[in-house]
């Protein structure tokens, strides 16, 4: 199946202009044989010309101006997508395969999916939904049921663009294709794992969404748990969607907060006023649109255990914060110390080496304990590094490529979407009860003072 129409709902929004359209331009540039009918719709009263200009500008931002020639029949429709009549008007003229991409706020997606039940969908309709998928386990399950009344599971693409990131995918190759890594990938050899996404961006006028989500829902619930699943799943028989998604879901099903103790093994914090580069950043609570009484965290951390025979006893820490300097997005796999180090070496290594995947810029390094030099048996650290960029594709380019080919391998399965909420529910309950203090850190710092940084 090769969908012929991409219909973006929420065409005037931030996701569409900043991520989807540039990625679409890059995809069309990369695959000259691909053609597409592109439709935009949304509640803004845009003209056809304004939409076409937006598409051209976004393609240009990805150095893909020429690809504009291959989107045909581009048009924009003003529509409230929660209204059945508007949806009918939008969908009835479309024939043949179509991808409907919900680039709208989560509550609007839910209402639109309900409304779609009263609309005849074109043949071969594929639905693409953004995060957050629901706002707890029950609402995710309910949304899954609604979607399954519209199309079969293999026509539902729950987008998590971290699954399209080159370095996330690279974990698969490094894990499964290297004899020097594959046998070491277990609690027998790995001491701890950190998955971290700290960014220097502050709220950036996104309070309408972020102040309801916070760092845990925005980053940990979706993206970082997907990375954890890729790191910890058993080897799938194939990289096909059933095997890969099944292996990831099994890993998530085995995941719990460390010692089932969300009070000891979660932390939350919020930034106070500070400076990032030349910019003065106001305190999170003074950002426009923030309601301080919500106590939304801008930095979240949890430690989990994956209770399988491969991983029991290894702490996996997931952490993400805003307004943190420097930007650090990485997976850090720390190996256990060797069982015995012959007497005579100078210094103790402290660990048995570290494998580090940088999620941006795309890079990998292996930190080894080596000796030599003036004192031939003194141990010191040396790093073997490889730069995996530049020239790598955007995460959304991979996502759109699969989506437009009707392949759901890089999307989140129905069960996995529910599991991610289940894992975090005890933490959310503890935070709501006020059992975990809301700490503070200055914008532009590395986070709260005693917070470990690597
Ligand atoms: P925005 O608020 O910027 O855009 C949402 C768009 O939906 C706007 O064009 C809005 O129009 C439109 N819209 C709202 N209600 C309706 C309606 N009833 N009928 C038709 N159109 C409607 O949000 P984002 O683009 O930031 O986010 C969209 C989704 O993508 C969210 O689920 C978000 O979590 C997800 N996401 C966003 C990322 C980002 O960086 N922005 C990154 C990853 C995921 P109007 O302005 O007129 O209300």
TrEMBL record:
Residues 174-450 form the Glucose-6-phosphate dehydrogenase C-terminal domain. GO terms for molecular function: glucose-6-phosphate dehydrogenase activity. InterPro entries: G6P_DH, G6P_DH_C, G6P_DH_NAD-bd, NAD(P)-bd_dom_sf. It is an enzyme of class 1 (oxidoreductase). PANTHER family: GLUCOSE-6-PHOSPHATE 1-DEHYDROGENASE, GLUCOSE-6-PHOSPHATE 1-DEHYDROGENASE G6PD. This is Glucose-6-phosphate dehydrogenase. It comes from Microbacterium rhizosphaerae. Its EC number is 1.1.1.49. Keywords: Carbohydrate metabolism, Glucose metabolism, NADP, Oxidoreductase. Pathway: Carbohydrate degradation; pentose phosphate pathway; D-ribulose 5-phosphate from D-glucose 6-phosphate (oxidative stage): step 1/3. Residues 8-170 form the Glucose-6-phosphate dehydrogenase NAD-binding domain.
